[in-house]
Design a protein that fits this description.
The protein contains eight helices and three strands. By secondary structure, it is mainly alpha-helical. It folds into two domains: 90 residues, Orthogonal Bundle (Arc Repressor Mutant, subunit A), CATH 1.10.10.10; 88 residues. A three-stranded antiparallel beta sheet has the order 1-3-2. α1 packs across α3 and α6 runs antiparallel to α7. It is globular, with a radius of gyration of 20 Å. It starts with a helix and ends with a helix. The C terminus is likely disordered.
C-alpha cells in the first residue's frame, strides 16, 4: 500500500471512530481534513473503502433513501478490528508520522493521542523542516547568481513558509509541555505552512 493510501485509510478510520458516515459525508470531511492542495475523488475513496471492508476494518449498512431521492444510502461504521487498528496506527510514531503526506491527518486526531506521542510527532516534524530549511538556504546561496529573480523569489517564499511552520511547531511544543492552550491561529498556519512547504521547496 502506498503512503498516500495509508494516510487516507488512517483518516477514514479516525473519522469513523467519531461516528458512522455515508460516502458523501465521509468524502466531504476527508477533503476538509486533507486541505485545498489535495482533493479526494470518489474514484480514490471507494477502492480504499472496499479494501477496508475486505479487511473487516469497517462495515456497511444500507439505510432508507432520503425523501427527495429513491437511491438507497450506504453508511460506513468502524468495527472493533478497525478501532483497534486506528489506535495501533496512532501509537506508531515514526518518521512517516511527520512527513508532509501524513502529518496533517495525525495532527487532526491529536485529541485521541497521548502527550508523549504528540510531542514526538511535533518534534520530529520540526526537525524535518529545519533540515529542509537548511538545504534550501544552502541551495539558494549557491544558485543566486544562476537563477532569475522569479525563481529566487519562489525559493524565498518556500523558505518563509517553512520558517512560519517551524515557529508554529515550537509554540505548540511549548504549549504541550507547559499544559497551556494551543496558539489561536494553529489551523491557518498548518494549512498555509505545510501545504506550501510541500510544493514550493520541491519536496514531498
Amino acid at each position: 500500500m502506498s503512503r498516500r493510501a495509508e494516510t487516507t485509510e488512517l483518516a477514514v478510520l479516525g473519522l469513523l471512530d467519531e461516528s458512522p458516515m455515508h460516502g458523501y459525508e465521509l468524502r466531504k470531511r476527508l477533503n476538509l481534513m486533507l486541505g485545498w492542495g489535495r482533493v479526494l475523488s470518489y474514484g480514490s475513496l471507494y477502492p480504499t473503502l472496499k479494501r477496508m471492508l475486505r479487511a473487516s476494518l469497517i462495515e456497511e449498512e444500507v439505510v432508507s433513501p432520503l425523501p427527495a431521492t429513491r437511491r438507497l444510502r450506504i453508511v460506513y461504521r468502524l468495527t472493533d478490528d478497525g478501532r483497534a487498528q486506528f489506535a495501533r496506527a496512532m501509537s506508531e510514531v515514526g518518521p512517516t508520522a511527520w512527513e508532509d503526506e501524513s502529518f496533517g491527518v495525525r495532527f487532526s486526531f491529536f485529541s485521541r493521542t497521548d502527550l508523549e506521542s504528540r510531542l514526538r510527532v511535533l518534534e520530529g516534524r520540526r526537525t524535518r523542516l529545519q533540515e529542509r530549511l537548511e538545504r534550501v538556504q544552502t541551495q539558494l546561496e549557491r544558485t543566486q547568481k544562476e537563477v532569475d529573480r522569479y525563481a529566487e523569489e519562489l525559493q524565498r517564499h518556500g523558505m518563509e513558509s517553512v520558517e512560519r511552520e517551524v515557529r508554529w511547531l515550537s509554540d505548540l511544543i511549548s504549549a504541550e509541555r507547559n499544559g497551556t492552550p494551543m496558539p489561536r491561529d494553529e489551523q491557518t498556519t498548518r494549512e498555509t505552512g505545510s501545504s506550501t512547504t510541500a510544493t514550493t521547496t520541491g519536496e514531498s
